[in-house]
Amino acid sequence: MSNYSIPYHDVDILIPAQKFEIKFSYTSSQMPNFIDSMVMRLLRISPMSVKNIANFLGMNQRESRIVLDQLITNNEIELKQDGLFHLTNKSMKYFTTVDSIPKIASILEHTHGLVYELTNFNYIAQKPDTNMYGLKLIATNEHAANSESIVRDRFQKQFYQLIEDEIITLKKMDGRPVIYKMGTVKKVTECTVRKSLDLNIDAQADPQPIKVLDSIMSDELKDKTYQALGQSKKGNNIRDIVKNLEGFEQLNLHQYFKDGRFLAPVALFDSLNPVESKASDENHLFIGPCYNQGNSKLILNKIKDVLTKNQAVKNIYWLAPDDAFWGKSLRFNTFVGALGQLKNKQNNEIQLKCFLPMSDERDRVSVHNYRKIISKDHQKYFYGIKEGLLDGNFEIIVVENEFAIVILHVLDSEADFLTSFPIGSMSYNKTLVSNLVNLFDAWQRPKEENGISYGPIFKKNV
User: Fold this and answer.
1) Closest by alpha carbon to 117, among 75, 85, 150, 92?
2) pLDDT tops 80 at residue 99
3) Per residue in 367-385, pLDDT tens?
4) Domains delineated in the chain
5) How far apart are CA 444 and CA 205, in angstroms?
C-alpha cells in the first residue's frame, strides 16, 4: 500500500503564457555535389589546367568546361593569367585543412511560432488552452511587459535543446546549425497552458506532493501554484458543517468529524471498505468532487439505470457549494454536458437546474467568476440562488423520486490538504429525497412567494 494514492480533488491550473513569432537566420554547412567537390579538392592541392582536370576526372574537355563554368559563376574558382584554375577566397574557406572535404556554409532564414509560459519562460510543447475553466496563475507585470526581450534571450540559450526535442525542425544539413542573426521576436497572442493537478492522498490519508509540475522544472511556477492554492483555501468550516448535518443523519457523515477536526483516515478507510446494506449503493461514500473521473462515471451510470426503468423522473436539481475550488476543471464541464443530455424513457430531456450562490441578483462579481468556469453551451442550466444555504459548504444533487447525493466541501485549517476536501454520500432514502425536492421547489419559487432563486444568471443584465 506504500504507493497507494487516491484523488481527493480535481483542480486544473492555468499557467499564463504567450505565443511568439520568432524570426532568425542560421548557418550550417553542406557538401557540394561530388564532381564540384572533387574539382575543388584538386585545386586545393595545386592549380590545374582544363586538360589536367578533365584527365583526372575521366571527362572530355567539353564536359569539364560545363562543370568549371558553373563553379566560376558561383565565384568558387577563377582562371588566372597563368592559364590555370585556382580556388577563390570564398571556396578556400570551405576547407579546414589541405586534405579535408569542402563544406559550404549557408545562411538560411527561418520563422517559428513558440509558446512560452510567463513565470520562468520555459517553452511549452503542448497546445495552448483558450478555455478559462481552472485556477489561473498571474504573471508579474515585469514579465508580461518585457516578454519579447526575455524570450529573445531565452530562445538563443535554448536553441540546441529546441532542435534536440524536435520543437524546431531546420533544413537537414551536415554539421551543427548556428544562429547567425536574430530577427524580430513578436508576441502574437495571450494564452494559457493547462495542467491538471494530481491532488492525491496516500494510504494514511496524507496529501502527496504534486508531481505534474516536475515536467516544467520551474521552482517559481511551483511556488506560484502552491501560493494560489493557499490563497484560495481559507479558514475552517468544520463546526459549520457539523451544525448543518442535522436532517442528514441517514448519510452517516457525522462520524467523520470529532472535536473540530476532520477524520480523513476514517473516511478513506470506509471508502475503500464499503459496508454492505440492504439497498444497493445506499450511503456509497464519495471522496473528491462529483465530477472527477470515478465519481462522475458512477453517478451518470446510476442515473441512466434509473431512467431506463422509471418514467417519473423529470428533474435533476443541483446546489453548488460556495467553494473556491469547485468547478475549476475541464471535467466539470464534461460532467455538466453529460447531465444535460440525459433523456427519460419517453426520450424527453431531463430538466437540469444547477443553483449557484450569489449575494443578490445584481452580484456582478459572482456572475463574472462563474463565466470563467462554465462553458457557454452549458450556461442555460445555471440559476442564481441566495448565498449562505447550509453555510455554503454542502453540494447537493437530487434525482427526482430516486436518490440524492450530498457532498461536504471540508476546509480543515490544521490539515495539510492543498484544497478543500470533498466527501459525500449517496442515499436512496425516499423521505430524504422527497424533503430535498421540496426544498428545491421552495427555493425556486417567485420572490413574492418567498423564493430565494434569482433565475437564470447568464440572462440577467448584471
Assistant:
1) 150
2) no
3) 999 998 999 999 999 999 9
4) 6-22+114-169+185-230 (no CATH), 32-102 (1.10.10.10), 234-459 (3.30.870)
5) 39
Distances (CA, A) of 391 to 136, 316, 440, 456: 26, 22, 16, 22
Helix, strand, or coil here: 144?
A: helix
CB proximity list for 219: less than 8 A, separation 6 or greater: 120
Pairing of strands 403-410, 421-427: antiparallel
What tens digit of pLDDT does each residue of 187-237 get? Answer: 999 999 888 999 999 988 899 988 877 666 577 788 888 888 988 888 899
Report long-range pairs for 39-44 (Cβ below 8 Å, ≥24 apart).
Answer: 39/67, 39/68, 39/71, 39/77, 40/71, 40/76, 40/77, 40/87, 40/91, 40/94, 40/102, 41/101, 41/102, 43/77, 43/85, 43/86, 43/87, 44/87, 44/92, 44/95, 44/98, 44/102
> Can you spell out the DSSP letters for 161-178?
HHHHTTSS-----EEEEE
Segment 113-120 mean pLDDT: 90
